[in-house]
Design brief:
Length: about 400
Amino acid sequence: MTITFRANTELSRCVACSIRPSDHNSSPIQRYASRCTFNRFANGFQPLSMASNQLGSVRRMRNSGNHVFSMTKNSSSESLTYKDAGVDIDAGSELVRRIAKMAPGIGGFGGLFPLGDSYLVAGTDGVGTKLKLAFETGIHETIGIDLVAMSVNDIVTSGAKPLFFLDYFATSHLDVDLAEKVIKGIVDGCQQSDCILLGGETAEMPDFYADGEYDLSGFAVGIVKRDAVINGRDIVAGDVLIGLPSSGVHSNGFSLVRRVLSRSGLSLKDKLPGEDVTLGEALMAPTVIYVKQVLDLISKGGVKGIAHITGGGFTDNIPRVFPKGLGAVIHSNSWDVPTLFKWIQEVGKIDDAEMRRTFNMGIGMVLVVSKEASHRILKDGDGAYKAYHIGEVVSGGGVSYH
């Protein structure tokens, strides 16, 4: 039986203990020739010494952490927070703390399982309440890219090449044309990450979802040689933080985004102030899939740690890849924060610290690299792709801005 904790937020938790045939069936409609059902699935980066003793672990909640920083404080009583929008990050952290007692080893972005001279690396995720905007805008062709991205971007942080992806699509009444659009996006995401769509499941559950709505989850598995795992152990003070740009909000923080949108008085069809796109188009921009770029950078050497910037932003995600006793200094003007985030902050009157703990602010992936590697990466970034020198590793802890 799959055990999932969900409370109408983007936070979800799966407990991994064993593999056995599922003892629960919600009258699913099976898709694809090859399909495996796991009764529990994990997304926790285990210490390598533990990997041979456990199949997986508990995925660390994306929106959790203890490092909080702030540059400025908005004194308005009308300022919005993620908690105001229904997502309690601290409650998520408490749940993680309790689960950690049952399944030690959580804290990273993917779960490792030993296989010969390699590790299989697995990850699972959904796209949160971004689905609400898909329903409202009618844009269903790219939500599948988001789904693939959230898992493959997690497992590539350990240096793993994605091998295959499986999806789960659930709805009250199956609209074949709509489902086809969603799955085309999943296929596109798999192509972008150079993996295959191995299988999936469609569950039709009458009266469970509102008419025209559906839910998605996805599962990715990759592989990395044992001696090539990126685990952050060699990170030292003085190493450089390289940021890779995001395409926008990606796939977290949408509960707060929707609250801001409601406050703004604008519709999804209105133009984003200062830009030539609608709010709907800007918010539905698919999550960047970093797999090919990151694997290419890893192959050239010097990459010591990688953080996927999702819920928790820089505040919570960057420290996850550091050895104890190290922190980060971020250069606040080292990249251009996209207009969309500025609009969200202005309309919602959101504090700097809240923005940086909820959104990626224009940087979707952070690489911790040696100084020598940083010069090469930044030079290459002037051509085929963008990369920014956004900060350094320092002694101490947490994340600060200068």
